[in-house]
Amino acid sequence: MFRTSITSLIIASPIAALADAPNVVTDIAPVHSLVAQVMGDLGQPELLVTGNASPHSFALRPSQAQALENAQVVFFIGEDLTPWLEPVLERVASKATLVELLHLPQTTTLEFRNEAAFAHDDDDDHAEHDDHDKHDDHDDHAEHDDHDKHDDHDDHAEHDDHAEHDDHDDHAEQDEHKGHDDHAGHNHDGVDPHAWLSPDNAAVWLDAIAATLSAQDPEHASNYFTNAASAKEELAATVAEVEKTLLPTKGKKYVVFHDAYHYFEEKFDIEVSGAISLGDATTPGPARVERIQNLVRELNISCAFSEPQYSEGLVKTVLEGTDAQSAVLDPLGARLPIGTSHYNALLRDLATSIAGC
After folding, report:
1. Which of 288, 356, 281 has its CA nearest to residue 317?
2. Under a CB-based contact definition with an 8 Å cutoff, are residues 42 and 218 in contact?
3. What residues contact 297, with CB distance under 8 A and at least 6 apart?
4. Residue 253 needs a FRET pair 20 to 30 A away by CA distance; which of 88, 109, 122, 212 works?
């Protein structure tokens, strides 16, 4: 798909100003918040992935497809996060300016992690290699088994009914999560798409959003850049607040439901020791679940985090028989109000959840 560079947008922008702010569509709530901050009082972007739905797999409503058809600009993380969106954009938003934030030259990216245990010291290195061998033998097979289910599970919001399986045995817990395996055909290499959890990337994107909107609406260019500057100042204050909140977490070890927090870990020096599921929330195989169970015991894990988009069943499984605590961690801020305050509230909410567990 053709990607428009920010520089070319500015150079090629029309001399005549548009009467109104452009029609803008965004993929997830954190991106929507950044765009809303830059647009300010000039307009409101549309949001595609709403509520507790997973961005990895989502079915558009007709009204959302219509919004894309009317869009002049679409800001989205990238097909690494939302592979379902790429063909939709090609089909219904062919005239829109598409800004794939993950692949802007200014974006800092991290690699997708396949292993269940993340290396932080020599002991973890050994554990990581042991797990990787198991992953090759078991999880890949599980992914292929579930590939045919891709078309049947468009929206993770439909998976709430899995909660009824929480009382089953370990095998039932894994069967329960087959419903989440619509990601099994995804590429498990390359760039980790959860880059919005780096506030450094958010600051870069605020400038890119302002440049894009100014090219579309030069009459209000100064407004967009002023709003972006103000948003970056507020973001810097939030980062300082988050750093203070997370001070008591130093030395603690955590396990997360799926590998969505790499960028947040790197920015704020959080020691996440492993993830029950891969970064696209693919169903873990039995060997991966067993590895995390052992990891919780070997490293004296303080806390394991579930997510509101998924059942808590697997988290309960890996913590069974241990003193580790559990809490909810949400990389999308699904329970937070959408809008200008959402992104900063998301960072604070993550910090509070981690510090409180």
Report:
1. 288
2. no
3. 322
4. 109
324-353 burial: b if 16+ Cβ within 10 Å, else e: beeeebbbbbbebebbbebbbbbbbbbbee
Tally of CB atoms within 10 A around 304: 28
Longest dimension (CA), the chain: 68
Tokens 């959402």, located at residue: 342
- pLDDT at residue 98, rounded to an integer: 97
pLDDT of residue 101: 98
| Residue 102 tokens, joined | 């993950």
Per-residue model confidence (pLDDT) at position 189: 66
Q: For residues 184 and 355, what is the distance between their CA atoms, to the nearest angstrom?
A: 33
Supply the DSSP string of 151-217, one letter for each residue: GG---GGGGGGGGGGTTS-HHHHHHHGGGGGGGTTS--SSB-S-GGG-HHHHHHHHHHHHHHHHHH-
The set of residues, in sequence order, having a beta carbon less than 8 Å from that of 94 and lying 6+ positions away, is: none
Rounded distance between C-alpha atoms, residue 57 and residue 185, angstroms: 12
Q: Are the beta carbons of 345 and 333 closer than 8 angstroms?
A: yes
Helix (H, G, I), strand (E, B) or coil at 6: helix
Q: How many whole angstroms separate alpha carbon 296 and alpha carbon 229?
A: 43
- What's the average pLDDT block by block, 10 residues per block, for the chain (357 residues)? 47 45 96 98 94 79 91 95 91 94 97 85 43 42 41 40 38 35 47 96 98 97 98 98 96 91 96 86 84 91 87 84 90 94 98 95
- Asked if residues 330 and 307 have their Cβ atoms less than 8 Å apart, the reply is yes
46-47 and 73-76 strand pairing: unpaired
**Cβ contact 131:117 at 8 Å:** yes
